[in-house]
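Support case: user asked for a sample of complex input and structure output to validate their parser. Sending the pair below.
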Amino acid sequence: MSKIHVTTTVNNEVVEFLADPRETLLDCLRDRLDLTGTKEGCGTGDCGACSVTVDGTLVCSCLVLGVEAEGAKIETIENMAQDGALHPLQRKFIEHAALQCGFCTPGILVAAKALLDKTPDPTETEVRYWLAGNLCRCTGYDKIIRAVMDAAAEMRGAA
Amino acid sequence: MSVHKSLPHDAALLHVSGQARYIDDIPTPADTLHLAFGVSAIAHGEITSLDLEDVFASEGVIDVLTSGELPFENDVSPSAHDEPLLSTGDIHYLGQPIFLVIATSHLAARKAARLAKITYHDSPPILSIDDALAANSRFEDGPRIYGQGDISVIDSAPVVIEDSFEIGGQEHFYLESQAALAVPQEDGEMVVHSSTQHPTEIQHKVAEAIGVAMNDVRVEVRRMGGGFGGKESQGNALACACAIAAQRTRRPCKMRYDRDDDMIITGKRHDFRITYRVGCEENGKILGISFVHYARCGWAQDLSLPVADRAMLHSDNAYHLENIRIESHRLKTNTQSATAFRGFGGPQGMIGIERVLDHVAHRVGRDPLEVRLLNYYQDHQDHSVEASGGSISSKMKTGPQTTPYGMEVEDFVLNQMTADIVDRSEYQSRRNAVADWNARHSILKRGLALSPVKFGISFTLTHLNQAGALVHIYQDGSVRMNHGGTEMGQGLFQKVAQVAASCFGIHMDRVKITATDTAKVPNTSATAASSGSDLNGMAVKAACDTLKARLCAFLVDRHECRHSDIQFKDEQVWIKETAFRFEDVIKQAYENRISLSATGFYKAPKVAWDRIKGQGRPFLYFAYGVSVSEVVIDTLTGEYRILRSDILHDAGKSLNPDLDIGQVEGAFVQGAGWLTTEELVWDAKGALKTHAPSTYKIPAFADRPDIFNVSLWDNENQEDTIYKSKAVGEPPFMHGISVYLALSDAIAACGSRYPHLDAPATPERVLTAVQRVQRHGL
């Protein structure tokens, strides 16, 4: 099948790639742009490991076609640390030991950031239900929730 | 000292920034090829025709291999040689690999794999435990039987209870699916990157598959995206397929299972049926007990024998059972070959006896906690206190109590731990509050349960209890460390690095952690049986001790001091009152031609086990824990929530408390998932219908208990383990049993009968159990 030329902005950089029209955004990010921080856990939108934002909206990149990225602004885990400084969520995940194998971590961080961008003062229940689409098999979730709540508190304090 | 500190996971920074590389993230040459298996659509029978024309013609396909084209061994089993990589014509389960597609992309390979035209001669599949029993389809000639004492005491016991229940299997659902990458080298050598817990087995199987010696194959594992036992043997097929294809095409070959393929092809936790017949006193003291275990092992033997053995070895859990018989049937079925999964049979054995204790308590009308305490082994302090006090009690006369397999329980601490958690969790007042709630509410019912864990630590195959390490110190005082253990998220690499840093008295940032590599440390055991830090920590310590001995000998000579004058601490080497910088000592040692590289080796002491007789000391020690869970169920829908869980867990003198608590929390949630929401469903033809997270439900964020308190029990290991710590990978998995028992307790509040509740206790099963109890009235 002939490929389609896509121009898009990923992590504030304009990029171009050729995509098979059947190819997912996840595969384009990983295979065309070498942004392998975004992971495939299920390929069916049920685990959240491939979470990215498209024009500020949290999506599973395995459910978005690469060609749909045309003209959009995409942000991935690779853009979360700014100028070499970790985002408070990233720091708090380390501090609270909120990761083990790490495979779900990028997706959960992207999803949590999308929550805090809109809801800086979430309740624990809001965090739990917002992140309900992100599966983690290692941690049992407790430390992740603590890390997100703590990061939110710090960010509110800093604002 | 770096040990006993809560340092972050060694790769935490890489993980939060998306830089940590898993197999599919490793940059590969542009000519890399991608593989996929074509799998069988029936569960049992023979292939009558195989037309691969459309597969060959599919876009991007380079080659397609069937069993006839395999150059050497067609076997990916861990030991029994009963697991062909590609079917030779016989079909043993639905999802069995039949042919291998080699293509230019992952998607092209997967699409092509669906295009084969295959006809079969169907045979009736043996799917269930009953099917297998009817056909006498089993591994080993007959059941294994372990036990002690005389179970005829059951017949004359005041109370006799008989029942049976089923326990479902469990999908590992490591977030990173199985993956491997083989890169051909000059002179026939092969480098394999594999997401595996067992690099040496990958090396061994790949060498057999491509017809070379093990020294021609190097396997490297930096990390896995979760393992849980699912990557102990199940990665063999992908690694062998990649190596065969790479040898054939002379190009790098990569294979990763898509999630659905992973669930359809690979093995899972063994499902069990357990029947029991128990005789006890009116107060609930067990006099004699007989268990029969039926384990559904799937089509190939894999690790089923030691898994089923370990289930038998945990049939006593925390209870001293003087008259016991355990009979274990290992049944062969036309389903995925069940494999290792955290606990390795232990959880199944343990839930058997825990349900018995619960059932006994219900029958004799006492709180299950009282009945548990009545049957517990005695704490080890009981011996010493009584001995030193000079008063020889009746307990002391019997000495340490013996398990059903002849091992003395010398380190029991659950009496103390249980007293502690009863206090912390306010068990008694909540027991009353639950009873009060249930008296006042007819729709929502609450349940509360406490369950203990006593888990044996060591591989039951005794020779596996060995490990190797390689430690280098470079001229600048930096240390590079390697050992046979693999990192799957559990924090092993950090814990072992803490050991190395502690040995030399240096900061962690001097110690570089490196990928597991069969060229550096050979003949390793799988990172399994919770043994990772016990074995590899000791091996690294042995290497560090060798290096320190060389440095000390050098310093004794140079400074005319004694060995005992030298100390390694605070980044310095102290000779009496004088301190030298570590890097300066290293530089001098180098210049004086002292070898700064050493291997280390460790073998666990004391263990000796005869699995046929069922006698010996299979374990170096036991790890303990106890949990209390409270749930609420909706008797109209069967839905439920975990309201609160309190866990007290014994990790010995923890090497890293944060990482260990992480293991406990994650294991508990995984264990609760096994017994509640995680349901595997096969249809009548043997097709696994729950092969994706859309239908197979592991716990999610919202399923964690509302109140979740996890603490470590400060308890130095009595045995000489690495810095007196205890293994922590598997034991806390079984805390999930308290959730199952709490659900059963809530259901019991709906009537007078003891609930029949199979696991997983899905809302459907809870509802059915509620209705059954209600039918029999109060």
